[in-house]
Amino acid sequence: MSMFRRRGDRYVATFAVDEVRVLRKVASEVVGLLTDGFDHGDPVVGRLFPEVYPEDAAGTAEFRRYTEGDLKTAKIDQAGAILAALPDGDAGGEVRLDAEAAEAWLRALNDARLAMGVRLEIKDGTDLGEELDDAVAADPASSRVFQLSVYAYLGYLQESLLNALID
Prior knowledge:
The protein is mainly α. It has one domain (5-166). The chain has helices spanning 17-35, 43-48, 57-85, 99-119, 128-138, 143-166; strands at 5-7, 10-15, 93-97. A three-stranded antiparallel beta sheet has the order 1-2-3.
């Protein structure tokens, strides 16, 4: 698994082909969710754009009217930062991020994990290892095993980038 390391003023990781594919798919899905499939009734959208004033629908609507477009654009740009930095084509390779791109990656990885967490019904306090063990025991070839693995990988990658930023 790739891990980010600081090299001078850059944050560098080398990704295998499969890691590039996963990151490209996850970032593309976030962009798609925020463009083609944007629906406030979707629990994932609700998690990425929470109600600012849960007890005041009019206040929330007013706040959204002024902020949602910029927030959505920022989230799309952040997912785009992942896509832009990944090696071209169907290959692995090195990713080199400046501080601004690294911050965008952190936010995009967080958005992807939030979205996956909602879809996978992961709650606060969920033991991811136990959840994965249960899924493997039920059906090792299931899509849930793969999705939980991707969720765990994104968390690992996010933590490695965060650690590189604070070192």
